[in-house]
Amino acid sequence: MKKLINSAEDVIEDYIDGLVAAGHGLARLPREPIVLRAPRFRKEPDKVAVISGGGSGHEPAHAGYVGPGMLDGAVLGPVFTSPSADDVYSAIKAVATDAGVLLIVKNYTGDRLNFGIAMEMARAEGLDVDMVVVADDVALGDESRAGRRGLAGTVLVHKLAGALAEQGTGLAGIVAALKGFLPGMGTMGVALGPCHSPGREEPNFTLGREEIEWGLGIHGEAGRNRGPLPGSRELATALVEAIAVDRGLAEGTEVAVLVNGLGGTPDLELRIFAGNVIQAARARGLSPELLWTGAFMTSLEMPGVSVTLAALDDASRSLLLEPAAVPGFGAPGHPNGVPDGDGGLPEAPQHEGRVHGETPATVAAAHEFVALLCRRLIEEEDHLTALDRAVGDGDLGTNLARGARSILSCGEELTAGNSLSGYFRDLSTTIRRGVGGTSGPLYSLLALGVAEGIGRAQEAPQLEDWGRGLDIGAALIRELGGAKIGDRTMVDALAPAVEALNGPAASHPEAVAAAARAARQGAESTGAIVAGLGRSSYLGQRALGHPDPGAIAIALLCETAATHLGAMTGADPHPGGGR
C-alpha cells in the first residue's frame, strides 16, 4: 500500500512537526509526542486544563483539537496504539494549572490503563487530576465485558469540556456535566473497505465488492458483522434507528449530529449522506439542531462513515456553539501566523534514577537473558502481526518488536546499576515508554512484579524469588487490566505458566519447561474461547478458531526461556508447542 511518508517509524514525529509548522498556535513538548497550545495561548492558572489523546491514525484527532475552546494538550501514541503512561504524565505536568487537569479517554483497555496510571502518578505528586471515559459505541451494546468503545462522539466531549473550562467551571463541575451528557450520546459506523497501517502491506480484513462492515471501531479492525451495501438513505435510516433505540432518544428530542468520515470518504459522499441522516432523524421524530460534517475521528484512509447523535439541552447547546480556535473542528477565528518556538515551554519531567546494589555480574546476566527474549519477539513480529490481524487491529507484533528494540538499545543504561530489582524497575519504565498500547503497561507491570519479588530476597535470588515476582506481576495485570482466565487474553497463558513455575518441580530447567508447556496449552486453548476482554471481544463468535495473539506471545517467551535454560544446563526441557 503506497503511503506519502518518509518511514513507518517516523510518521508520528513527522506529523507533529508538520502540524506545528502550519501556524495554528500550536507547539510541541520537546522530545515528547505531545502537542500543546503555544505559550501565548496557554490557559490562566485558575482554569482547568483539558488533555486527550490516544493512538494516531485518527487525524485530526487528537492534536487537531488543541487550542482555545477545546484542549490544552494531546498525547499521541503510535498508529492505533495508546501512548505510554510516561508520555501522558509528561503532558499533565506540562499543562497543569492550579484548578486541576481533566483527562478525556476513549474506552479502550490500553488508553484507560495508561491514562489511569499517569493520573495516579500525578495525584501522588499532589496534582488535582480526574478522568472521564467516553464509551459512545452502540454497535456492541452492553454485552461485552470490555465495554462500549469510544468513538467519534469523543470530539463533542472535547468541545463541551473545553468550553466549560474556558468559562471557569471547576474540575468537579466539568466532570459532572460530562457525565450528564454522555448517556444521551451514541455513535455507530460502517466501513466500505479496510485501511492499511504504515509499513504493512496487508489490511486487517477484506470485503467483497458489495459488502460493508457494520459497527466497527476506529482501529482498522473488522466490525461486528457484515452485509450488502445499501443506498445512502437506507444506511442513514439504519444507523439513526440503531442509535435512537440504544440511547432511548424519544420523539421530540433535540439532538446534535456529527457525520464523520473515516478517512477515505470524499466530501461529495459525506454531504449526500449527511443530508440523508438529517432526513432520517426527522422521520423518526427527532429534532436535529446542530450538524457537523467532515473527517473528525478517522481510521487512516478507510472508506466509511459514522453517525453520532447526542441529546441536547439549553446548556449543552450553548457550550457546543462556543467558539473554538482549533485546526480540526472548523470553528471560525482560529489563529494564523508563524508558530512559536520552544521558548517558554516546560521541559519533560525527569524520572527517578535507579537504586544501586552489589551485583553487577548478576545484572549483566539478567539483561543478556532479557535481550534473548527481545530478539525472539523481533523474530516473531510478522507471525504475531498475522495472528493479531485475524482477531484484532494487527499491531501486536509491531508493538512488541518496537519495545524489544527499545530495550536492546538501552542496554548500557539499564545495566549501569548493580541492583537486580533496580534493573527490573528501570526495565518496567523502558517498556512503558517503548511499547505503549495495552501490551506496554501490562508487560511493564510484569517487570515491576519481578522487581518486587526479587527485591525481597535476602541473598542471590533463587527460583522461588523469580516465581514470586512473576506471580506478583501477574496479579497486578489481572487487577489493573481486569482480565481473568477464560477471557481470552495473555492471562490465559501467563497464569498457568506462573502456577507451574511455582509448582513442585525440582530444578530450574524442569520448572521452566513445565511453565512453557502450561503457557502453550493455555495459549492454544484461547482459540476455542469467545473473548471477554480486549479487541477480540468486539468480534464475538468470529474470533473462534484463532488463538489470542497476546497469549501466544507469552507462550513463545516461556518456550524461549525453557530452551535457553535447558541448553545452559544440558537438560532437555521439552517445552513443547511452537508454532
UniProtKB/TrEMBL annotation:
Domain DhaK: 7-329
SUPFAM superfamilies, sorted: DAK1/DegV-like (SSF82549), DhaL-like (SSF101473)
The UniProt record lists the keyword Disulfide bond: no
Domain DhaL: 364-563
Stored Pfam families: Dak1, Dak2
GO molecular function, one term: kinase activity
Keyword set, alphabetical order: ATP-binding, Kinase, Nucleotide-binding, Transferase
TM helices/strands, residue ranges: none
Recorded superkingdom: Bacteria
PANTHER family: TRIOKINASE/FMN CYCLASE (PTHR28629), TRIOKINASE_FMN CYCLASE (PTHR28629:SF4)
Protein name: Dihydroxyacetone kinase family protein
Organism: Arthrobacter ginkgonis
Top-level taxonomy: Bacteria, Bacillati, Actinomycetota, Actinomycetes, Micrococcales
